[in-house]
Design goal:
mainly alpha
Amino acid sequence: MNKFFLLMWISVGGIVGTLLRYLITVLMEQNKTTDFPLGTFIINLAGCFVFGFVSQFSTNTVIIRPEVKLALTTGFAGAFTTFSTFIFENYQLTRDSQLVLSFIYMFSSILGGSILLYSGIILARLISK
């Protein structure tokens, strides 16, 4: 495939990921009941699942073409997930002396992200058999 078109696939995935991240963040902020950064938390966990699922599913099937895989992983998941925001929000919680909430957020994001990444891989394996 032409490198230009490959970059376009990745760019489209990135645009969709960025817009969806923004919309989810706005929705969560409008319904905020805690200082816990729930929008970023949900986004990061969902992004881990998408990345795990697409990575595994695309290795076992020809349904997902290589350029679509890159659009969904590098483009969409890369723009959708928010690791830098996650780190900054942990800094803010710590700065604001909310150490317990910071620990819960950090631990549950890493554990939840790992579990959902593996869940995406397992689901892709089951579907593509």
